[in-house]
Each structure stands twice: as structure tokens, then as C-alpha cells.
Request: fold
Amino acid sequence: MINMVIVDDEEFFRDEMAFMVGTEENISVIATCATVDEALEVLWQSDIDVVLCDVRMPGKNGVEFMRLSRLVPSPPAVVAVTSFNDDVAMVDMLTAGARGFILKSAKRTEIMAAIHSAREGGTTISPLAASRLRQYIIPLEVAVEGLSALDTRVLRLLHLGKSNASIADEMNISGSSAKKSVARLMQTFDASSRLELVFLSRAYTPPGNPS
Reply:
């Protein structure tokens, strides 16, 4: 069961989204919140797996929620949602560690996929948002030493949005090995989140592979 919280200052969207995801047998909407402070209170009181959080809200915004949500004992995965093609907000949320960025106009299947992917440690970015992200990919300023065969393959799977569990299954390695590989890659590329790692590492082509 995926325990969810929906955070948005628009009551209509909260109710609509709660109804939509509530029809899924394996999703339970624990709370809908109009502010970041309300959502944080829920996180401290309940074990929440995924939070669907609006980017732009009065008072504290989605980026501040990302920062404060990490203070709880078991931080949830956060999927950012917005009504706008807001490039700055998108980059800020993803860099802060959001597990996804989708538009409120996204189809139900896309929203459901983003929720399940976030719960499993993967990432989802709306196609329109993904196309706009290309201009923000930052070339590496220093040469990256050759990665091991294992880390190179893990990196490729991360680019496909795979979770640690999926990477472990596909590569026939333990979950801890997959987790350690991701940690090494984040250190190598000086990334603070999985999504930032994907952005930064797109400028790196492993030896022997086409660019």
C-alpha cells in the first residue's frame, strides 16, 4: 500500500486528485493539505511514502517543502506538480531532490506512473518538461575518470528512470550493491540527488560508447 499526501493551495485540484488516486486499490490518500506547514505536520505524525506537491503556493513553496520534509525520520518521495511551464521551478525542484515533475494537465496514466515510480525510487518527468530540461544540462567542467563496468551500466539504467530495486534485478546484483553504485556515481558527478546525477552525467560518454 502506498500512503500518500497531496499538497496544493487549490481545493479543486486537491479534491480531484484525491478522487483520482483514491480509486487505485494500492494507494491510500492519508491527507490533503492546503499549505506546506499542514503537510509537514502530517509527515511527522504518519508514515508517508509519496507526496504530490504543488510547486507554487502562497507562503512556503515546493522547494521549501523538499528541504523541510527531509527532516522527518523517513522522508517521503516527492513528485512536483504545476500548472505552468515554469523552467526555474522545475530545475529547483528536481535539483532539490524531487522524484518527478509533472504538469497538472497530465493524463491519469502519467500521474499514476509517476506515483508508483517515485515509491520504487525511480523518476518521472512529463515529456514536455523533459524537452525543456535539455537547455539546463550542465557540461562537466572537469574530466571524469573512467567508470567501472558496473557503475557505467548502473548509470545507463538511471537514465532510464530505474529504481535501485529494478537495477539490482536487471543486473542480478544485491540491492546494497546497487545503492553503493548510485552513491559512488553521485560522488563522482558531485550530484545531490538522483535526478541531478542524471542531468550532469548526460554530458559524460563512457569510453567506447557513442556520444
